[in-house]
Amino acid sequence: MQKISKKHPCRVNTIQTDCVITPFFERKKGVLVSGCEVESTVWDTGATNTIISSAVIDALGLKPVRQTQIEGVGGCMDSSVYKINIYVDGCLEFTGIEALSGDIGDYDVIIGMDIITLGDFVITNKDDQTWFAFRYPSSEHIEF
Known about the structure:
Blueprint: E1 2-7, E2 15-23, E3 36-43, E4 51-52, H1 54-60, E5 66-72, E6 75-88, E7 92-101, E8 109-111, H2 113-116, E9 120-124, E10 131-136
Parallel strand pairs: 3-8, 4-7
Antiparallel strand pairs: 1-10, 2-3, 2-6, 4-8, 5-6, 6-7, 9-10
Protein name: Retroviral-like aspartic protease family protein
Domain Peptidase A2: 39-75
Keywords: Hydrolase, Protease
């Protein structure tokens, strides 16, 4: 099981982690693939899909695997789809993720529900401290 926990000394309204993005590859012993380190990664339950910025796409020289149409706040638009691997804070590994390209403001990566629904995602705010935890794969139901 893979897992990550982050504890903030105050209440925060954005869950952020670091990650490394690589082009998709199937892991083989002795094969090294360079990646793009991203400090501005946000977890977004309002995003259906994972999204990567043009800066990440350009840094890795990614080529789209296909085109698709997406619907956002501003309406429908075309988007390229890129197959990538994501390594979050050295704790989580997601391979073969189909990420969309997008103009995502201050962030280079948005981790969307396509990844979040693979595991168990929890946020608590007891004593005005935000704690975030994610485990993958999902292992049991959480009930309050």
